[in-house]
What does this fold into?
Amino acid sequence: MTAVVGILNQQAVAVAADSAVTVRGANGIKIFNQANKIFTLSKRHPIGVMIYNSATLMGVPWETIIKSYRHQLGGKELTSVEEYQSDFINYLHKNDFFMSESDQLSYYEDFFYSSLISIKNDVSKENPEILGLGGLEQDKAFSKLLLGFLKKFTQLIESQSEKCEEFKNVSNETILDFIEDPLKKSVVLFFSKDYKPSKALFTALKKFFSTIIKHKGTLDNFTGLVFTGFGSEDIYPKLIPINISLVVKDRLKYFVDRRNSATISYDMNSAIRPFAQTDVIDTILSGVAPELESTFMENFELFFSKYNELLIKEVDNPDVETLIRRINVPELISNYADQIAQVKTTYHIKPLMNAVSFLSKEDLAEMAESLIYLTYLKRRITFAEESVGGPVDVAVISKGDGFIWLKRKHYFKPELNGHFFENYFNFEG
It folds into this structure.
């Protein structure tokens, strides 16, 4: 996992990221602490990009893709951060996403198979009795439960999330023509040799996976790319995150994460945007731990409901009992939550953000580094998995000075590789 953050005010944006990367294999989890998550998008202009979650696009390292883009960009400067983001997506298309169709198909075989394993684990938790069945009987029982699971979640995805931009006018048949063969192979591999899945189950699987591909969200193995800095016409910094997860032939599953975007202006003079593991940073920003606040609200709702039931027991008048039962408890809880949010905003969040708007570049950088370190510290001193750690890379991007590293790890010793720094600007990549 990861912790990255961008802190913006009217003069600059500071970015910081840890170095931990979590690798999940057949034998368990391994955490490495030397990953790079902040990159210059141009060697000559004030624009950078951070990555979080998956370090690859269907197996292709993002570091390779980003540096390849930087090479072809050369000294060209674009007018806005939005234009850099759009140009980067166009670059992926022009280069066929750095993978062949056969590579895509191989990836989907693994993806469908691992997804089926994950679904089986979820279904088995709710229906542990199927684990005690034999191979063929277990397949039959699981298939029946799987069919219900697929229909339920397909409808849920379709009702709760929009389609990604590049899949809005794409039919299911177009996707299925491409993914049907790897899906068949993964289904054959998943079930025992003696069991043949029904046509209804395979149809449900096709609809489920095509829906996952077309709609926003729904995948754990996405990559967050956070573009930040200045275009040539940007007076104030911007931060634009996008989520990218899959490639289907010549289309890319991605969308702009508008909820976490930030555009500094005269009216909005500061912003803090954490990504990936945000619990500690959210606690500092809001004044209360999100999981603790959620527990408070749940317990308050239980208390309110129990209180009403106690009143009903003490009242003999049926009319009064009816009136008590008509009380809309969820609405009252929602209003209470809104009032708490208003108090947090007025007395904690606004004063904090007002202070951030006046921070110098040095203080922005120190704050960004501290937020990442505090996230690491919480993992370190509790029994949580230490999925945030390693050196913290820190940079500041300003209109006048460009992209400036304050802390950056190297996999090599700088004093032994003077030629690297001498040649850095001689080669645009």
